[in-house]
Amino acid sequence: MSEYDEDETPFDAYRERVDRPLTRLFMAYGTDRLGWFSAGMIANFVARMASLVAPVVLGTAIDAVFPPPERAGEFSLPVVPDALLPTQQLPQFWFSVTAIAVAFVVTAAFTWIYGVTANLFAHGVMHTVRVDSFRKMQRLDQTFFDDKQTGEVMAVLNNDTQNLERFLDDALMNSLRLIVMVLGIAGVLFYLNWQLALITLVAVPVMVGFTIWFMKVIEPRYVRQRSAVARLNTRLENSIAGMELTKTTANEDYEVGRVSDASMNLFQRTMDVLKLSYLYRPGMELLAGISFAATFLVGGLWLTTGTAPGPLTGTLSVGDFVVFLMLTQRIVDPLAEVSNIVDQYENAKASSERIFGLMDIPVAIQDRADSVSLPDPDGRVEYDGVSFAYEDVLADADHQAETVIDDVSFTAEAGEMVALVGPTGAGKSTMLKLLLRLYDVDEGEIRVDGHDLRDVKLEDLRKATGYVGQETFLFDGTIADNIRYGSQDASMDAVREAARAAEAHEFIQGLEAGYETRVGERGVKLSGGQRQRIAIARTVLQDPPILVLDEATSAVDTETELAIQRSIERLTEDRTTLAIAHRLSTIRDADTILVLEEGEVVERGDHEGLLEAGGRYAALWNVQAGQIDEPAELSDD
Questions:
Q1: Whole-number Å distance between alpha carbons of 239 and 257
Q2: DSSP H/E element including 486
Q3: By percentage, how much of the chain surpasses pLDDT 70?
């Protein structure tokens, strides 16, 4: 059996190993912004405490200011010394008005301060987390992208970071608001009448227990919902990227069905969360409502009968009863807000697990501590007993990954060309990717100027190696930007010279905006041949001593192929070149030609020598020359 279940990925496995993700989030990203966080907390505390002033002052005024003088009560406020309070009714009235007005101003001012500082903290963390996640993604091995869906990565970089921002901005600060309001209101109520306060707050322990149950039950539902979001994103991204194939094969309904299934899965996972949430929220509001009703019942009987009901003792003033009703109502909102806090907490916890799951994926291909530089390489390339198999992280424990390259050895001296030919699946492209160290060899060594690639700084190796593939990728931007990619400081004159060398200048000049023409996402506004020539111009500008060509003239018409081939011939002059040939005529002048089958070199030599040998290369050459029928085992199509 596989180590992972049907819907699980290696990404999920790392996520499950993350311990206390929100604590880790705060320690890793919150401590640098502790000033903004503390300012927000303090402002939130002041604003919430100031919001309690108005009902307390109003209750005191009802008892002491508004009755006739002979029935006026004592004008006293919590934490305010009596010596500072006026003793006459009119001054007491104006004092009450002023205190209430100041309380509202303080509440508004500190709420604004809290909003600004909390958002600076939360959005700052979100920005840093997103950039760090993207930076880690850039460093991940190519094997991660071989079996990792784009939608899942996008979910981490976008949705998950936004979930963290909402938690840090809303849930964290609302948690403080809840604590301050509950404790502050409880303190005031106990100060006014501890017996009635016990009745008002009797439901709080039940609410706490209800919340603990809710958090325990809803957490796995949030995890499944986040996975469903990632899978839907992946399905949408794949469907949009493959739109041309979908249309040309009349599979629109099939794709709609697949997206519908992924969307339905998300719908069901979301409803699992919402059903529990809609049980929790009304439950909390019901318990808070029971507290309010109990307060109104007991306090109302106390006032209407003039005696304390049941085992209660003492007296209750109208002002105190009004304060109880107002503050009990005030406590309903923050307690009901617990459901949103829990929602955001669980969502943020699942998201932070996914973020740190990405962060914790080990990177195998990276610089060693003692890696050497390649400041000015000559370009001598050696493959010495190289073997390689793609890692299958979802394979059964007893399953051995299939070998793609098997004990391959050859040398390309500086300035020489080595060409690789053979059927599809023979391992040609993998051979070239090993030189770029997108993967590390399992056995043997690849050396550049005598240095094992694993001992060379990655940046130096890749800057010294120019790559032109059969599937040219262009970023959405101008033609000039795409030619400069990797040589961003190049002048416009250098860009034009590179384009001329790639035989791209003429068609670029024919475009309405010339070099400032935007190519669209993946270069969709240009033809395949135009994209290929821009890629060659990009490599010309890079001016690398080692050149890798992966069927750079495939899938273009004959005229375009000739133009591309001329530019490639100029590009390969005095450079060490490793090339995969779609058409053998393009590599007949190579110093060495290797014929690969099933990862092994079955023939080697130059063009004339291989033709004289009359082996597999000769058979393939004769097929392309139109002399015999093509043998199936050598088909490249």
A1: 11
A2: none
A3: 90
- Exposure string over 314-323, b if 16+ CB within 10 A, otherwise e: eebbebbbbb
Specify the pairing of strand 600-605 against strand 451-452.
Answer: unpaired
Phi, psi of 96 (to 5 degrees): -65, -45
Q: How many CB atoms lie within 10 A of CB 10?
A: 17
Residues 6+ apart with CB under 8 A from 43: 110, 111, 113, 114, 117
The C-alpha atoms of residue 269 and residue 226 are separated, in whole angstroms, by 9
* Model pTM score: 0.73
Q: How many residues does this entry show for the chain?
A: 637
CA–CA separation, 474 and 533 (whole Å) = 11
Q: Where are the alpha helices (DSSP H) in 140-171?
A: 142-147, 150-154, 161-166
Report the distance separating Cα 140 and Cα 133, nearest Å. 11
- Domains present along the chain, CATH in parentheses: 11-359 (1.20.1560.10), 374-464+589-629 (3.40.50.300)
Distance, CA of 502 to CA of 384 (rounded, Å):
33
List the helix and strand counts (H, then E) for the chain. 23, 10
What is the spatial order of strands in the sheet that 443-448 belongs to?
403-412, 381-389, 443-448, 451-452
Which of 247, 263, 242, 326 minimizes the C-alpha distance to 292? 326
In the structure, what pLDDT confidence band is assigned to residue 630 with cuts at 50, 70 and 90? very low
Residue 127 one-letter amino acid: H
Tokens in use for 108?
A: 């508004």
* Residue 11 pLDDT class (50, 70, 90 cuts): low
Q: Which neighbouring-strand residues pair with 382? A: 411, 447
Q: How far is CA 397 from CA 11, 142, 400, in A?
A: 18, 22, 8
Alpha helical stretches, state H, 369-452: 428-435
User: In 3-state terms, what secondary structure has residue 451?
Assistant: strand
Q: The tokens of 410 are what?
A: 């050859």
Q: How far apart are CA 287 and CA 335, in angstroms?
A: 9
For residue 403, is it left (φ>0), alpha (ψ between -120 and 50) or beta?
Answer: beta
95 touches 356 (CB < 8 A): no
Instruction: Count CB-CB contacts under 10 A for residue 80.
Output: 13
The angle at the Cα of 468, spanning 463 to 472, to the nearest 5 degrees, equals 115
- Dihedral sign, Cα of residue 505, residue 511, residue 512, residue 517: negative
